[in-house]
Task: structure prediction
Amino acid sequence: MDYLLTEEQIMVQDLARKIAEEKLRPIVKELDEKEEFPWKIMKLLADADLFGVYIDEKYGGMGLGVFGLCLVTEELSKVCGGVAVTYAASGLGTDPIILFGTEEQKKKFLPDLASGKKLAAFGVTEPNAGSDAGAIETTAVKDGDHYVINGMKHFITNGGDAEIYVVIAMTDKTKGQRGSSAFIIEKGTPGFTFGKKEEKLGIRTSSTRELIFQDCRVPKENLLGKEGMGFIVTMKTFDLSRPGVAAQALGIAQGALDLAVDYSRTRIQFGKPICANQGIKFMLADMATQIEAARGLVYSVARQIDSGNVKVAKESAMAKLFASDVAMKVTTDAVQIFGGYGYMREYPIEKYMRDAKITQIYEGTNQIQREIIGNNLIKESLAASKKAK
Result:
């Protein structure tokens, strides 16, 4: 379908596709097997100015917003979901600064993030605080001109490799969700170290580590927003970033479909290519239709955010929910089309299924997305009822 992209958007999309196909595809298997952080590709993306697509021109970016980020993420994901999330997770860590940073904070941190000189990460998840973002135990105690942070985050994408972290910590435990605050913490700050790199089912080239804070002193100037705004920072950030996860899922699904179509044309059984069988054609048709529906939703939500609509929690959750469910269904069907070969690591398709699964889990499980959507539907209905009276 024609989504009426601008010349600049098409240029960014083509550039991301070129890097993905020419530079990334030849080394995907190696990155996956060795679980190496994809520094070479990150450098190429930085040199192409693609880290700045979603950052305002004032701070060295292109100003193409969430939609620009989604276009790049989708193209990278068609080839490797792990590389794509490494790129997009830097955007996740940058979003809180874009949304809540002071002008001084933006001038200090955004130019390096826009240029790709530094990567970012977002630290919310803890052993006892995953879907329940209000249950975090990491603390931040004010001490003069600093906050002293103690605790641990885990499952943090880009952990250990990123230079700039936005971390949520409790400044007043008695207030529950309203007692958390957000801080910008730079790699190398005394008391800030990293745990082991996790070994994962999929997105193996992406780094996932613990963040460990032991009497880590952070300047008070690094507080994002005000004390007590940590939960709001988290939720607003996810509203902005979930279309990026949806774009990752979308790209993974499209990449798997492309491989399945090609394979179905060349795999001969009973004297004819398997694509001549109605059963296979029906599978491919359903896969393509589901992907196009997901693309329409993801693009629409991204454009809505870029238009200035900040009330997108429901729609953002819908995009992430639908696209990730589609990715899991499409990649599973793609493996089925490959048959026994699809189950073998010698062929590329099994990696797409492994990579797809995480999109149903991180940045809020799909069960949480359904909670968000349902709660917003009820709120909208109540508001409409009151207005009618």
User: Anything to note?
Assistant: The beta strands are 120-123, 139-143, 146-157, 164-170, 180-186, 192-197, 208-219, 223-224, 268-269, 272-273. The two ends are 43 Å apart (CA to CA).
